Automatic annotation (TrEMBL):
<keyword id="KW-0808">Transferase</keyword>
<dbReference type="InterPro" id="IPR030382">
    <property type="entry name" value="MeTrfase_TRM5/TYW2"/>
</dbReference>
<keyword id="KW-0539">Nucleus</keyword>
<dbReference type="GO" id="GO:0052906">
    <property type="term" value="F:tRNA (guanine(37)-N1)-methyltransferase activity"/>
</dbReference>
<dbReference type="InterPro" id="IPR056743">
    <property type="entry name" value="TRM5-TYW2-like_MTfase"/>
</dbReference>
<dbReference type="InterPro" id="IPR056744">
    <property type="entry name" value="TRM5/TYW2-like_N"/>
</dbReference>
<comment type="similarity">
    <text>Belongs to the class I-like SAM-binding methyltransferase superfamily. TRM5/TYW2 family.</text>
</comment>
<dbReference type="GO" id="GO:0005759">
    <property type="term" value="C:mitochondrial matrix"/>
</dbReference>
<dbReference type="InterPro" id="IPR025792">
    <property type="entry name" value="tRNA_Gua_MeTrfase_euk"/>
</dbReference>
<protein>
    <submittedName>
        <fullName>TRM5 methyltransferase</fullName>
    </submittedName>
</protein>
<dbReference type="Pfam" id="PF25133">
    <property type="entry name" value="TYW2_N_2"/>
</dbReference>
<dbReference type="GO" id="GO:0070901">
    <property type="term" value="P:mitochondrial tRNA methylation"/>
</dbReference>
<keyword id="KW-0496">Mitochondrion</keyword>
<dbReference type="InterPro" id="IPR029063">
    <property type="entry name" value="SAM-dependent_MTases_sf"/>
</dbReference>
<keyword id="KW-0489">Methyltransferase</keyword>
<keyword id="KW-0963">Cytoplasm</keyword>
<keyword id="KW-0819">tRNA processing</keyword>
Length: 480
């Protein structure tokens, strides 16, 4: 990103948003998609432009007018592909077919470059010739410029430009062009979605709902491999972390297979939680682990933290209250051949902390020697509620810690709508733990969920005075 000369401050300006939307800056958009949620300055851009799983470049106004579907499709709610046929007049050169290849290279800056449209077509009047279609925006008034005429003169080609009726069909329009033509003028158009295997997951706004079946079918038509489009119809259930959805188009099979960080998962998207935008975060946490470490995954879902940790030769205890998630977690452990390395539980998160987590920590921590470097990590990825579970760590263990270095590290996720989300999540964590975390925690901005709503992860070692019923002797001497 810095190769383009933009500073973090400039990312927030309208100048950057204008520059980034130009077709000459695809790399900028790729970086924004990859690093959204990791650089705070990027959030303004992402919130304004939305995150598209498969982004499409918006062409200039002239292109939109020339390549727009016919106006009769405005207001269409059930897709009629035949209604999108349209004929436009474009400039062409008549060229002998044996020199067409060389001429394409010489005139590539003025030849039609629109994806899906042929640049060379048959000449209906001469089987030995071909018609080379030129870009109507670069060949003004159907007349070539002097540089192009000179090229043709050297190749002994007539420079006369003719008019050709080019038929456009539904297949020639991009999804965003189709939806812009169908929806009422001035209303927001989206062709964006989250891809979960063969499923396109949309989150449509109220004004788009009358067109939802058409939108779903267009998404399927324009994205190879997508065979089902669904729209979320309710907020995420905070108990089981799933939501109701409506199948808009395609097959109703919601059992799908996804791949994340080179690991395959299978799941029923209608019954469990899966978010492809969290792949970077899953990888970040697993990267912190070393072989031999112990991971407790309190809200494990179908295993995006637990399974890669097990493959890294960590000892994993994974839990989820949702019986469907529990079943798919077991299935995915077997699928990835780590079922012998993961102990799976179907419990409430608090019961998991007070039961298996307490039991394992009580057993392992006293046995650790100073030279041993085993680390204990506890992942709590339930952003709507996880912070409320932190009070379970209060006096979870008896006795005294043998080493403060061995205290378990918690990675707790939360949403925040606060003006200062970092301060907000720390204060709420401190309230649950009953102690200050100043200088003892780090906060990571995971992603922007909605306007003015961020997802964060706060990481900290559980303070000894919180975890144990009796304070650590060394801390007592320091306080004295």
């Amino acid at each position: 990103l810095w190769r383009f000369g933009y500073s973090a401050r400039l990312l927030k300006t309208n100048h950057f948003r204008t520059a980034a939307s130009n077709t000459s800056f695809p790399a900028v958009w790729m970086l924004l998609a990859q690093y959204s949620g990791r650089i705070p300055g990027l959030f303004v851009v992402v919130k304004k432009n939305r995150f598209f799983t498969m982004p499409e470049t918006v062409e200039d106004k002239a292109n939109l007018e020339l390549y727009s579907p016919p106006p009769e499709v405005r207001g269409m709610t059930l897709l009629n592909r035949e209604a999108f046929k349209r004929t436009i007049v474009v400039p062409v050169l008549k060229v002998k077919k044996e020199i067409i290849s060389g001429l394409l290279k010489s005139l590539k800056h003025v030849v039609l470059q629109r994806p899906g449209l042929k640049r060379v077509v048959e000449d209906p009047e001469d089987e030995d010739s071909r018609l080379l279609i030129l870009d109507p925006h670069k060949i003004l008034e159907f007349s070539l410029g002097e540089p192009e005429k000179e090229v043709l003169k050297q190749l002994s080609v007539c420079s006369e430009v003719s008019k050709y009726n080019l038929e456009l069909t539904y297949e020639n329009f991009k999804s965003e062009e189709i939806l812009r033509a169908v929806l009422p003028e001035g209303q927001e158009v989206t062709s964006g979605f989250s891809r979960v295997g063969h499923i396109a997951h949309l989150n449509l706004r109220d004004h788009q709902l009358p067109y939802r079946y058409l939108i779903g079918q267009v998404i399927i038509d324009k994205n190879p491999g997508i065979t089902c489009a669904v729209n979320k119809t309710s907020i995420i259930d905070s108990t089981y972390r799933n939501f109701e959805m409506e199948v808009l188009a395609g097959e109703s099979n919601l059992v799908t297979k996804v791949k994340e960080n080179s690991i395959a998962y299978e799941l029923d998207f209608s019954k469990v939680y899966w978010n492809p935008r969290l792949s970077t975060e899953h990888g970040r946490i697993v990267e912190l682990l070393k072989p031999g470490d112990v991971l407790f995954d309190v809200f494990a879902g179908v295993g995006p933290f637990a399974i890669p940790a097990a493959r890294k030769k960590c000892h994993v205890f994974a839990n989820d209250l949702n019986p469907e998630s529990y079943s798919w977690l077991l299935h995915n452990c077997k699928l990835n051949k780590v079922d012998s390395k993961v102990k799976v539980f179907n419990m409430d998160g608090r019961d998991f902390l007070l039961g298996p987590v307490r039991e394992e920590l009580s057993k392992q921590l006293p046995l650790l020697k100073e030279e041993q470097k085993t680390s204990f990590h506890i992942v709590m990825n339930l952003p709507a509620l996880a912070i409320e579970f932190l009070d379970a760590f209060r006096h979870l263990l008896d006795g005294e810690p043998c080493s403060t270095a061995a205290l378990p590290t918690v990675h707790c996720y939360s949403f925040s709508k606060h003006d200062d989300p970092t301060k907000d999540i720390q204060e709420r964590a401190e309230a649950s733990l009953g102690t200050s975390l100043d200088g003892r925690c780090s906060t990571y901005l995971v992603r922007n969920v909605a306007p003015n709503k961020e997802m964060l992860c706060i990481s900290f070692q559980v303070p000894a005075e919180v975890l144990y019923k009796r304070p650590c002797p060394s801390e007592g001497k320091e306080q004295a």
